[in-house]
Each structure stands twice: as C-alpha cells, then as structure tokens.
Amino acid sequence: MFVFLSPSLSLFSSFFLCLINIKMRILVGVKRVVDYAVKIRVKPDKTGVITEGVQHSMNPFDEIALEEAVKLKEKKLATEVVAFSFGGPKSAEVLRTALAKGADKAIHVTVSDAEAAKAEPLHVAQALQKIVEQEKFDAVFVGKQAIDDDASQTAPLLAGLLDWPQALYASKVEDGGAGSLKVTREIDGGLDTIKVKLPAVLSADLRLNEPRYATLPNIMKAKKKPLKAIAAKELGIDLTPQTSVLEVAEPAQRKAGGFVADVSELIAKLKEKGLVKA
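Below the sequence we write its predicted structure tokens.
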C-alpha cells in the first residue's frame, strides 16, 4: 500500500523530525570553589590554601556553561538541563543555585570534605561518565577550567572516557542541524568554528555569554526541585589520588617600578641591570 503526503504535510513532517533530532538532555557540571573575589591565603604549613570560613560560590566558567544550557532549553533545542556536582556536603548549595538559575534537577555525587580536597579531574570525569551512562544524556557542558586548580582537564578526560567528540573553549554555540552543534572558539589567529555530532562534550569560555542572576522567586522554586545524592563509592569510583601536592607558596612579590625622564635614561638603567648589552 502506498501513502502520498501533500507537500505541506511533508514539509511539516520534515520540520517535526528536525525538531526531534536537535532536542537533547544536557548534563552541566558545576563546582564549588572559593569565590573569585576572595584574596587567597596560603596555609602556614604550605600544604594548600585556607578554605575554612571563606566565601565559596559556583565556579565562574561553570556558571557560563549552565547559562548556555538553559538558553538552549529556552530556544527549544534542549528538553532538560540537569546540574551535576562532585564534592562534599556543601556542594549542595551550588546545586541549589544552579536550580535557581534554570536547571530542572540536580545530581550530587557525594564524597567527604577530605576526599573532595584531594579529588582530581579524572575522578570527576569518571563520575560524570557513570551518570551519563546511567541517565542517557545527549551532551555534557562544563566550564573550561575551575579557578581553584586551573587544571582544564575534566572535559577532555570525559570525552575520552565516553569516546565522544569534544568542543573546548566555546565562545559561541549554535544549532548545527542534523543532530549536531556548531561551536566557535577564539584562537590566536582569529576564530575557529567546528561542527560536532551529538552526543558531545563542550567546555565554556569566558565570552560565551553573561550568566543570569538567580531571582528570589526562582530561589524559592529551586527548593522544590529534585536534588539526588549518590555516594561516589556507589558508582565504583576509585578516589585514590594520582598526584600529591609538594608545596603551595605565595607568588613572588613584584618590586616597585620607577620613572625615567627620557629614552636615554631608560637605556642607561637597562644597561645597569644587565638587560641590554652596551
């Protein structure tokens, strides 16, 4: 039996199928870090930085990744945004903030504060991998780096573990059509634009967007959104550190500069310091 569709119905069907192809569930990694506005102080024994009694907040680059995921949902390109955090009990605060900023629900992979302090990007990537495989997500968004360790390794490690394509340091994200994303990033020579097929891993750069503020009504609504806690041990993750911190030290103090009257005096000063050959 043959069924003939009118041109208008066929066009509608194609459009409907296209919408199905581009909609996705996005998992967004958010990390609790010392607030970017806080002056970091090194512990007297030089084993790390002081975190007790210090203001913490969501990693700024993760905020950008979350904002992009929420925007894609508002554009009807995503069906659900789920926030993820790997850390101690207080990481739940960051997840509630993510819920207030537009995430639909949250997943907290819990570890002790001592384990969280020694956690490495590989541990986080392994936790993300387990959640993705269990929950069947179509994309994972994270910040390009965390401002506490500056490792910038979670996204590429996760892409390797999942065997997914990766789009790192994204400064612009668009629908690429046919179940893909078109991602632009800034490079030294200009802009680099690639297309990645879903599922994929994406990391957000600074100029991707301007994160929204969590309004009071949304903060209240966030309290009713689901937040699921899962122990890292339940996921079978080995939390043994692969690296150890030998010493944490303050950066060297910069010496005060000086003024010169003209170029001749500048050259003379540079010669005195041995920075210019006579």
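Residues 61 and 143 are 4 Å apart (CA to CA).
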